[in-house]
Write a structure and sequence with these properties.
Strand content: 25-35%
Strand order of the largest sheet: 1-10-9-5-6
Number of domains: 2
Distance between the termini: 75 Å
Structural class: alpha+beta
Number of helices: 3
Shape: elongated
Order of helices and strands: HEEEHEEEEHEEE
Number of strands: 10
């Protein structure tokens, strides 16, 4: 009988140790799983709208009353990108200090009014699609002095064109693959590859 109680006691200790190890393992992995899950929710897989207007880096594309041209894509850690960002900073300068494990991609875009109307334009509709297939949304925008009023009003005056710099926070291992202006009809998709 004593042996049986010893065996039950040993089994209970082993079971308790296994449960404790499982709790410790879960507590260790949970923040990583939660961080990855949050990133996936914040940066969903990109589904390209149909129809769309296609262009390549340096080419203009017009949809409706907006012409959109991606001039350059820079890494926010490059001194040239930081200089361009600082030069075009307005009163609300946003420093390029990404969180650990990420960097900023700075996209130089020229947007122009293609008609004699006042089309809406908001940098929040500019999407960076990474080589991981995920959509990254704009964090900050800076524009040349002549464009700051248009950016603030979220409208382009008839005949006007704006040179803007849009910053996207992306993981260090992601490379920009596309820039999309989603608010035009149809959407404008600029392939960077």
């Amino acid at each position: 009988m004593k042996r049986r109680w010893k065996a039950i006691g040993a089994s209970a200790i082993i079971l308790l140790a296994a449960v404790l190890a499982g709790v410790v393992l879960f507590a260790t992995l949970q923040p990583a799983l939660t961080a990855e899950s949050a990133q996936n929710e914040q940066n969903p897989l990109y589904v390209q709208p149909q129809p769309n207007v296609q262009a390549r880096l340096g080419e203009s594309a017009t949809a409706g009353n907006l012409t959109f041209r991606v001039q350059d894509v820079m890494n926010g850690t490059d001194p040239e990108a930081r200089q361009v960002w600082a030069t075009n900073a307005g009163d609300h300068y946003a420093p390029l200090n990404p969180i650990q494990g990420s960097t900023y991609a700075i996209v130089n875009v020229t947007v122009a009014n293609a008609m004699n109307r006042t089309p809406p334009f908001s940098y929040s509709h500019v999407i960076l699609v990474g080589n991981d297939g995920r959509a990254y949304y704009a964090n900050y925008v800076e524009g040349t002095a002549s464009c700051r009023a248009s950016l603030a009003a979220e409208q382009l005056k008839p005949g006007s064109a704006c040179d803007i710099y849009v910053a996207f926070s992306i993981p260090d291992n992601v490379v920009p693959a596309k820039i999309v202006y989603a608010a035009s009809n149809p959407a404008i998709v600029v392939n960077l590859e």
